[in-house]
Amino acid sequence: MRRETAFQGLLIISLLSFVTAHARWSEPIFHSELNDKAGGAIATFPCISSDQLSIIFVRDSFMFEAKRNEPIGPFESERKLIELYDDGLGWYTTSPWISSDGLRLYYAQVIPVGKNFERIIKMASRQDKDHLWSEIIRHTELHTFFPQSIDTELALYNDERSILYRSNKTGGNNFSIYTASRSSPHGLFEVNTIDLVTELTNLNIQDPFLSSDGLVIYFRSPHPETGKTNLFKGARTALNEPFGGFTLLSDLCDPDYHAGYPYLTPDLKTIYYNNSVGDQKGIFVSHWIEPATLHVDAVHGNDDNDGLTRPTALASIQTAVDRVEDDGTILVWPGMYTETVRIEAKGLKLRSAADAAILQAPGQIALTIQGPRSSSTVIRHLVIRNSAEAVQCVDTSCRMENLTLVDNRIGVKKIGSDYAPTVTRCLFWNNETADIEGAMHLIYNWHASGDDDPLFADPTQDDYHLRSQSGRYWPRENVWVLDEVTSPCIDAGNPWVTPAAEPMPNGGRVNVGAHGNSAFASRSPWPLTGDLDRDGRVGILDLAQLAELWTQALPWSR
Hints:
The protein is mainly β. Helix content is 4%, strand content 37%. Mean pLDDT is 88; it is low at 5-22.
């Protein structure tokens, strides 16, 4: 067996009006009231509270806080956060980031150091939202002191234990993206955890914003054609994996004009950012319009249906691909799909809706993913077999997760040199020429070596579930059965990915292959004997549960 680790004038619009099948960001709304009309200063660096009732922003180098009574509409009052400047040791401020409870504010600020000025990251706190900001901590542990050194453009995870920031640690104008972590959200970051984030540095990203779990990133970066900074998005499935699938947020910005400083609500459904639209310059807001989900059912579907529900499912995957909008989802119900599928000029999510569906294209390419616009495409929980090539990726950095790729000539083939697809937790078996052809991000996949056998249940009957002594799903009878052997592909996935979707008991680690990280994953023993609440750690809650059960006993033991 061979397994890899990673390489490489305000218009008010009701949210209720956003009812459409089109997946996109709404028309941006300009918050003109945040600009200083008398002085001509433009509001920048928006930082919205989790309830959207207050916003912290930068204007004329100082931070302000504005408030409103409803989470939509103009902000009605503002004040300068003068208490953060009373020490006389800071003025020009950028990149505010506020905690989910609104009690801690992180930001980058210029301070004098001898005869020079440097910018460091600070954190201010307050007792409640009605009090002034008081205690200020300087995170100099993140800083490298030399003339004109700069730490700026920061983002934190929701638990505040990890930070992402931009710095010129190597001197001059050589800026890179770094990460650091700490054991407590109230302490200093540990110097030995500071690390370069290579894939983000290589993209020359600025103003990163992270989702609360750290798995999705929004940022500004030069548009590849015009050089103007525009908004982009990327993602990953585990904290130790590289970000990928970078796509332009074309609904929000024009490639000929600058846009940046993204800041999103915790649900990632509303984005505040800086933009220029004609003579309107400043902070804008846009709301995500949910894409449609289409269903495909080879057994009961019909391509004349609308595909919006399982009873009205389509019959072919390609028909769903042709109809679905950007960022839409296609749910493929169990069955055999003999067809060639081609995804290009759009990003989408394609996955099995229940137990893994099977796709095959004898003598042809079963699935082709082509073009930069398809870089946000994610394919999950499919068996792809009996094809010349299971998946061909052409000039795209798409993502493939938990696939079983068997009995093909080639498993996954990459064409083009500028993009690197990500392949993670996939199971490769009996592919004639190669499992992988071309350079990609390969993360905890399983490849047979020598006499290795994935121990499928019964591939001659289209059953690619993994045999397990702890339990394996038998789709023909809709029951769980016990085997005499256990597949080496069980608990072989990335250890930093939670197996929350897998049934209990599981080994605390995802399985590779089409059924991994799903309700149909084969079972294995839970590895932590003392973890009574099955949260992945033995802690005080387990001790409390044990204490509560301490005097229980069976009658015969008394």
